[in-house]
Amino acid sequence: MTAEKSLRFRAILGPAGIERDRTVDIGPDGRIRDIRSGSGPFDGFLALPGLTNAHSHAFQRALAGFGEAASGEASFWSWRDAMYRLAARVTPERLFDIARRAYSEMLRGGFTRVIEFHYLHHGPDGARGTAMAEAVTDAAGEVGLPITFLPVYYRTSGFDGAPATADQARFSFVSVDEFLSWIETLGSRADGAAPHSLRAVPPAELDTLATGIRDLLGEDAPLHIHVSEQTREVAECEERFGATPIDLLMDTVSVDRRWSLVHATHATPSERERIRTSGATVVLCPLTEAYLGDGVFEAREHSRAGGFAAVGTDANTRLSAADELRCLEYGQRLRDERRARLANERGLGSSLWSWLVEGGARAAGHTDHGLRAGAPADLVVLDPGGPALLGHEPESALDAWLIGGDDRDIAAVYVAGAVKARGGTIPDEGEIADRFAGTLRAIWAD
Ligand SMILES: [Zn+2]
Q1: Half-sphere exposure of 107 toward its Cβ, with a 13 Å CA cutoff?
Q2: How does pLDDT run across 69-119, given as a tens digit for each residue?
Q3: pTM for this structure?
């Protein structure tokens, strides 16, 4: 709990755009009580509503830089082999060190919540336990990043329904029943669940899973799934089931606003329309989709049609809200050979940031978002002295940050009204970095 307080800003990004001279009143519950006009002295220059990182695999932070040599077909699938080699070497203690580093970088980079899509469950021999799940949630708690923890259900190695392979032993369960009883042992740590993908979960089990999670965790518990990320995945799905993955998902289980479809990269126009009318959120992971060579989702069309979208850092090679949004916009520009793809008449930042803040809240199963009464006082405050923002007024600062900025342009990050990162650093940064570096060396020396 934080004390009741008021913060005064030269400007905020409110529901209607940039609003100058605003005071944000924050209650002891860490939520915004009121936003009213105010004057200096100011506590900050431009306050943005905090952004949810809607898709993370924390342990993959330890893979950045280790999968870049040209080899074989250099595809997603050869990258996955490298990821499996890493997964085999991660103990609960190592996972805690990696996740703490990743989560501290997320806070510094402008994210105020993480949705963790957690599939590295068991011991290397498949032994059941909760130590890996605890390592992740404890790491988030220690750095002060709110977490929406989604344990993953993984059962098969492909669309043919073959059992999980030895490489997948740490991820997989033998049945929905086993998974649901394991979720019960996690108690309050689990917030929802994630059927991994249609290649790892037989479609016939999706409804049982969704119903079981609703019974255990409540009506609003989020459900996330990787879908339509790779063209090979789309082709295999069509071959096995005679339908593209998103159509198959929609035909198999009742998809509604509780659902988030991660990637949806190769969604057809009619699949996008089905996503939009269902109220589900598309979780875009622009840096990872570029890193893995996945392809480009039709984000401009989805946005124009009124669809919901959130942004996630997925493989965690770089943890920066500005970089993700820049990559998202630039992917659309490269595809269309045009500028200003996700912008409106006022610029790029205000509409794009607000769109993804709303989608991020939906992906976490929340209804309150943005800078308005009742929403959590999660704020990313930009620094007018930051390298990318020199000489800017609030009206152009967000665009300047998204086009050219990084963590050095963030003055402070607040979660529930309390400062968690300031001037690009967090408390205990040195110790977290040292532990991470030692763990990384030990993993790759194994
Ligand atoms: Zn993912």
Answers
A1: 30
A2: 787 777 787 788 889 999 999 999 999 999 999 999 999 999 999 999 999
A3: 0.97
Domain chopping of the chain, boundaries: 5-49+374-422, 51-363
Tell me the per-residue pLDDT of 114-167, one tens digit each, with 9 for 90 and over.
Answer: 999 999 999 988 899 999 999 999 999 999 999 999 999 999 999 999 999 999
The helix/strand/coil state of 443 is: helix
Strands of 228-307, DSSP E: 259-263, 281-284
CA–centroid distance for 277 within its chain: 22
CA 315–ligand 1 middle distance (angstroms):
7
Name the strand (E) or helix (H) holding 321.
helix 321-336
Ligand 1 centroid from CA 416, angstroms = 27
Task: Report residue 302 as tokens.
Answer: 């989805």
| CATH annotation of 5-49+374-422 | 2.30.40.10
Q: How far is residue 155's CA from residue 172's CA, in Å, rounded to a whole number?
A: 5
> Cα of 120 to ligand 1 centre, how many Å?
12
Active site residues: 263, 314
Phi, psi (deg, nearest 5) at residue 197:
-175, 170
Q: How far is the CA of 401 from the centre of ligand 1 (A)?
A: 26
Ligand 1 center–CA 56 separation, angstroms: 7
Task: Please give the CATH superfamily to which domain 51-363 belongs.
Answer: Metal-dependent hydrolases (3.20.20.140)
